[in-house]
Design a protein that fits this description.
By secondary structure, the protein is mainly α. It has a domain of 50 residues. 69% of the residues lie in helices and 0% in strands. It is built from 9 helices and no strands. Helix 7 packs parallel to helix 9. The termini are far apart.
């Protein structure tokens, strides 16, 4: 009873104590969080410094991708998409995402520029395939979807790849194929997450068109 009377009589003191405790808790938590961030930064800088000292190593031959146009429809005489030229460049295909730090550790900093160029060549090849498919889908949807399915299977990150595919599947009324395309979009390691959102929204829209 005495304690209750004391608390009622000293409301301001109670509020002050609770506020002080809350502030202390937030300060301690913030301090611990800052220490964790500092530790993460320190470890990253240490790993980055160590990776920069790794000697140049030969790139794993299994990373190189060889384009096989024989499995695709015949190229038009006027290859406006420049598929053939893109297919002849040296390309690297990463089946799983990998960071620059991990690449430095494996192959050394001296290989980073050439690896980046080979990876860009691969992306340009997929872009050329997508452009080619887009140019023939109106007249040859079966040929176009064969090209597009290859690009999707190789992790192409282009919105048009998925849009063209969804258009063809919707025109066929193939809801199962749209579901598979949606799963592929969800599993794709898009550089820009916004592309995934736009792609999924487009596929959902095509599914709704079939269902209505």
């Amino acid at each position: 009873m005495f304690i209750l009377e004391f608390l009622y009589a000293n409301t301001n003191i109670l509020i002050f104590l609770l506020t002080a405790l809350a502030i202390t808790f937030l300060v301690v938590r913030s301090s611990r969080h800052s220490k964790r961030i500092d530790e993460i930064k320190r470890r990253f800088l240490e790993e980055e410094e160590a990776a920069n000292l790794v000697r140049k190593k030969e790139i794993d031959p299994e990373l190189f991708y060889t384009a096989d146009l024989s499995t695709l429809p015949a190229l038009p005489e006027n290859d406006t998409a420049q598929v053939e030229r893109a297919s002849k460049r040296l390309m690297i295909y990463f089946k799983e995402p990998i960071t620059n730090l991990e690449l430095k550790k494996q192959y050394g900093v001296m290989q980073m520029d050439i690896i980046a160029q080979y990876e860009e060549n691969f992306n340009e090849y997929l872009k050329a395939l997508t452009k080619w498919a887009g140019s023939i889908m109106a007249d040859s949807p079966d040929d176009a979807i064969k090209i597009l399915e290859l690009v999707v299977s190789l992790g192409g990150e282009f919105r048009d790849t998925y849009r063209h595919s969804a258009d063809i599947y919707a025109a066929r009324g193939d809801e199962a194929a749209l579901d598979a395309l949606l799963r592929a979009a969800g599993e794709n390691h898009f550089n820009d997450p916004n592309i995934r959102i736009l792609v999924c929204e487009y596929i959902f829209k095509k599914k709704e068109e079939i269902q209505t």
